[in-house]
Amino acid sequence: MASADAIIAVQEAVECSGGYRVVVTGHNLVLPDWGGVDSATVDVSTVDQVAAVNLERTGDGPYALILINGQTYFKRSTCDHFARVNGGGASVLEPFLLGMSGVLQSTPGATAGVLPNGTISVAATLKDVGPAKLTLDPSSDRPVQLSAAKPESGTVTNWTFTAWGSRPTVQAPGGQVPDQGPGGNPC
Hints:
Blueprint: H1 3-16, E1 19-31, E2 35-45, E3 50-57, E4 61-68, E5 71-76, E6 83-85, H2 98-101, E7 111-114, E8 120-126, E9 130-136, E10 143-150, E11 155-162, E12 179-180
Parallel strand pairs: 6-12
Antiparallel strand pairs: 1-2, 1-11, 2-3, 3-4, 4-5, 5-6, 7-8, 8-9, 9-10, 10-11
């Protein structure tokens, strides 16, 4: 499989899946407009562009996030209400939204190869993630694992993809929802 073909095949497979779950482990994966994350479970719908997330913010504790209608809302574990990321936070979860953001299609210089066990490996630089290796299921072209090394810190972030076809049910918080930044005590 040619590299460009692999990237396009993955993008199409993700978009047609309906949804997926990605479990992230590692240290300080920096999300746009949010900051570092040490672990996360992200449920994504590729049909209606929503996501439900539970994550551990680096040095700050657990948060729940939802993405709906292009807006990101969050609730720190010590709070009893949701807040909206300042300005809407539309890009906060973009690194996890492989089927919605098209990050795979904008990866010039990607290389692909078949591993001895028959899986496909794609090396690419992904927006907001950096250099990464994506391992694919050859029968579906769906991602199985993504590994991103941070040479400057010596850390590796691993993403494991599961629950293909499942979609989260997400509702925007009701009532008055203040804009706030994460961190500190947003309650």
